[in-house]
Design a protein that fits this description.
Elements: E1 7-18, E2 21-32, E3 36-40, H1 47-54, E4 62-67, E5 70-71, H2 77-83, E6 84-88, H3 98-107, H4 115-124, H5 141-154, E7 159-163, H6 171-188, E8 191-195, H7 199-205, E9 208-213, E10 216-222, H8 225-228, H9 232-238
Helix pairs in contact: 3-5, 4-5, 5-6
Length: about 240
């Protein structure tokens, strides 16, 4: 079985509701191990909710989720979130230095991050060691995202969840982050699940794509489906009608 045939995460008939409002409806499908899968669809489609289910931030109302064939419900939540990291559009930081932020995941485990390890991790995201003791308040948007991603690398997560991480960046920073994610995917065989509103990004970066609308997955396949779909709803979405 090839790597891409092995699911890193599998959903089976997953539903998620709040106060009788059905946010996700009978989601079934797999995110292949070691590949980049992009999630696209209009606002309110349920993409972020699906992402939160992937590392146990929320639990499904019904249905089953498996991480590497093991039911997600059997994972210790802290260990699960080390294995399944997440980076957000806002790139939240704690006050202090870049090193303080990088060290946080290990501090929460009662461990310490060595300075040399921190420098190596910064190098992996294209930041020089001079950034190590820079204040996070002094970072640009692109630099904050790189630090946010670097922080997820501290735990050596096998799966990385990305939620609109380039939507607020300028073109140069966007390109740098795209190349960073591709490099992480290739270097560490990290499974990437990436929510993006940028369809060109989804096509060029993604190996696979899920198209979501109104809490349902309406089409999945190679990312080129966004250029060649015969699904009328997908065609309408790609052409810009996102009502």
């Amino acid at each position: 079985m090839s790597n891409s045939d092995k699911p890193a995460i599998h959903f089976h008939e997953v539903n998620y509701s709040i106060d009788d409002i059905h946010i996700l409806k009978k989601i079934t499908g797999s995110f292949p191990k070691g590949k980049i899968t992009t999630l696209v669809g209009p606002s309110g489609a349920g993409k972020t909710t699906l992402l939160k289910l992937c590392n146990g931030l929320i639990s499904p109302t019904s249905g089953d989720i498996f991480i590497h064939t093991k039911p997600i419900s059997t994972y210790d939540p802290i260990k699960l979130r080390r294995q399944v990291g997440i980076a957000l559009q806002s790139a939240p930081m704690i006050k202090g230095s870049v090193f303080h932020n990088l060290a946080l995941p290990l501090e929460l485990q009662g461990k310490k991050l060595a300075e040399q390890d921190a420098i190596r991790i910064l190098d992996n995201v294209g930041l020089e060691k001079s950034f190590l003791y820079r204040k996070t308040d002094d970072l640009s948007g692109g630099q904050r995202q790189k630090v946010s991603i670097a922080r997820t690398l501290v735990n050596q997560s096998e799966i990385l969840l990305l939620d609109e991480i380039t939507s607020a960046l300028d073109r140069n920073s966007l390109y740098e982050i795209e190349q960073l994610i591709v490099n992480i995917n290739h270097k560490y065989d990290t499974t990437i699940i990436w929510i993006t509103h940028n369809l060109e990004q989804a096509i060029s970066i993604g190996d696979f794509t899920w198209v979501m609308m109104d809490g349902e997955v309406i089409e999945t396949g190679n990312s080129d489906l966004l250029k060649s779909s015969t699904n009328a709803l997908v065609q309408q979405f790609v052409q810009g009608d996102r009502r």
